[in-house]
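Model it.
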Amino acid sequence: MWRVNVRCDGDSWKQSGAEFKTMTENYQLELIGSQKMPNGIRIMAYKMDDISEVETFIENCTIFPGFTAEFESL
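Modeled.
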């Protein structure tokens, strides 16, 4: 299993958050954490099983301006 961490600033979320949420519906994943920091930064953590899907998901996350993503083993 893999944990994928996605971060973005508040402005990026306002511009692309809805599209990002729609994009996540295309993947087998589970939201395991979501935080909005006082400075507006959003941090979301997803659990995914398939490493190929993880890599594709990360590529698609970074299409959105201001979004970054990384993964680690659970």
